[in-house]
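Field log, afternoon session.

UNIT: design team B
ACTIVITY: writing a sequence onto a fixed backbone
BACKBONE:
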C-alpha cells in the first residue's frame, strides 16, 4: 500500500531513531538476537559475589536468580521450602566452591534434578590453606567451618576473574546457543577486574608488608595479592572470640602499631569493638561482600564499587 506523503518523513525519522537507540545499547547487556529469548535457561546462584559474577556473564542470555537472599550470608542461610523446587526447575547452579556453601549438597540431592549442571567457580584456582591446616593453629578451642582451604577467593580481583571465566565456560556448555554473548560479557567484566587489580596494586604499594586485622578470616587472598598480612579475630562470623583470640589480636596491634581494626558493615562484633576501645584505636570498615542489599545484587558494578571503598578505607587505616 502506498503511504501518504506526510507519513513518510515520520516513518523515516522513527526508523532512524530506533536504529540509533539500538546502536547505543551496550553489547555486554544485549547479546545480539538472544535478548528476550523465551527459552532462556534458569540459572541459580548461591551468595552475593557469585550472583554478581554470574549476572555479569549472563547478560540477557539467561535468567539468574539468587538461591541465598542477598541480605543473608552463606554462614546464616537456612533453606526454605521453595529452594528445592527452584533447584528442581533450574538448568544451572553456580557456586563458589571450596566448602563455602556447606548447605548445598543436601539441597541438590533433595531436588532430584539429574539435568542440573553445577558450575564450581573455584575450579583450577590456586588456593591458600587455613592456618590450622598449615600447622599454625591459634591456641583456642574453635573448629574451622570452612575445612582445610580458605574459600574467600573472590576478594582477590584476579582470582575473581578466573571465577568469571569458569562461569563463562559453564554457561556456554549449558547453553551453547548464546556462547558469543557469554564470551563477550565475560571479556568485558574481567577487563574491569584487571583494572581494579592495577589500581589497587598502585594504591597499596607503599604499605607492602603491613598487617591489618579483621573480624573473621576472609582476607588472606586479598592480603596475598598485595603483599600485606591479614590477622583475624575468629575463623567464621558466628563464633565468639576466646580470651586467647583477644590476647593474640591485642599483641598483633601492639607489635605492628596498628591504628585501626577493620570491621564488617553487615554485623557488629561487641568483643572487637570493645578491644578497639581498650587499645585506644579506631574501627574502620572492610566489606567482604558476603551480603548486601537486593538492589546491590542486581548490578555487577557493585563488586568494583565495594572493593574500591575497601581499599580506600584500608589505606586510611594504615595512614
Amino acid at each position: 500500500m502506498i503511504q501518504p506523503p506526510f507519513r513518510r518523513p515520520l516513518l523515516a525519522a522513527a526508523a532512524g531513531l530506533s536504529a540509533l537507540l539500538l546502536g547505543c545499547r551496550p553489547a555486554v547487556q544485549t547479546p545480539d538476537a538472544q535478548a528476550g529469548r523465551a527459552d532462556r535457561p534458569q540459572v541459580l546462584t548461591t551468595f552475593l559475589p557469585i550472583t554478581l559474577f554470574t549476572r555479569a556473564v549472563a547478560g540477557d542470555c539467561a535468567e539468574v536468580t539468587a538461591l541465598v537472599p542477598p541480605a543473608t550470608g552463606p554462614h546464616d542461610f537456612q533453606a526454605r521450602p521453595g529452594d528445592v523446587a527452584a533447584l528442581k526447575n533450574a538448568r544451572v547452579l553456580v557456586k563458589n566452591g571450596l566448602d563455602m556453601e556447606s548447605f548445598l549438597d543436601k539441597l541438590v540431592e533433595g531436588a532430584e534434578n539429574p539435568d542440573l549442571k553445577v558450575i564450581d567457580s573455584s575450579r583450577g584456582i590456586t588456593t591458600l590453606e587455613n592456618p590450622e591446616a598449615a600447622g599454625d593453629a591459634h591456641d583456642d578451642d574453635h573448629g574451622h567451618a570452612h575445612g582445610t582451604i580458605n574459600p574467600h577467593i573472590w576478594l582477590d580481583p584476579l582470582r575473581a576473574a578466573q571465577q568469571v571465566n569458569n562461569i563463562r565456560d559453564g554457561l556456554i556448555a549449558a547453553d551453547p546457543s548464546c556462547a558469543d554473548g557469554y564470551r563477550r560479557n565475560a571479556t568485558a567484566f574481567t577487563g574491569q577486574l584487571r583494572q581494579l587489580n592495577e589500581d589497587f596494586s598502585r594504591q597499596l604499594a607503599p604499605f607492602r608488608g603491613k598487617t591489618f586485622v579483621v573480624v573473621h578470616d576472609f582476607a588472606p587472598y586479598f592480603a596475598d595479592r598485595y603483599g600485606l598480612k591479614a590477622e583475624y579475630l575468629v575463623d567464621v562470623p558466628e563464633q565468639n572470640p576466646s580470651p586467647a583470640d583477644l590476647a593474640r589480636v591485642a599483641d598483633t596491634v601492639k607489635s605492628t602499631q596498628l591504628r585501626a581494626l577493620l570491621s564488617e558493615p553487615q554485623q557488629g562484633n561487641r568483643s572487637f569493638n570493645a578491644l578497639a576501645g581498650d587499645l585506644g584505636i579506631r574501627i574502620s570498615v572492610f566489606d567482604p561482600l558476603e551480603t548486601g542489599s537486593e538492589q546491590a545484587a542486581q548490578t555487577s558494578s557493585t563488586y568494583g564499587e565495594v572493593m574500591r571503598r575497601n581499599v580506600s578505607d584500608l589505606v586510611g587505616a594504615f595512614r
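LOG NOTE: Residues 1-35, 133-144 have pLDDT under 50 and may be disordered.
NEXT ACTIVITY: expression trials, pending approval
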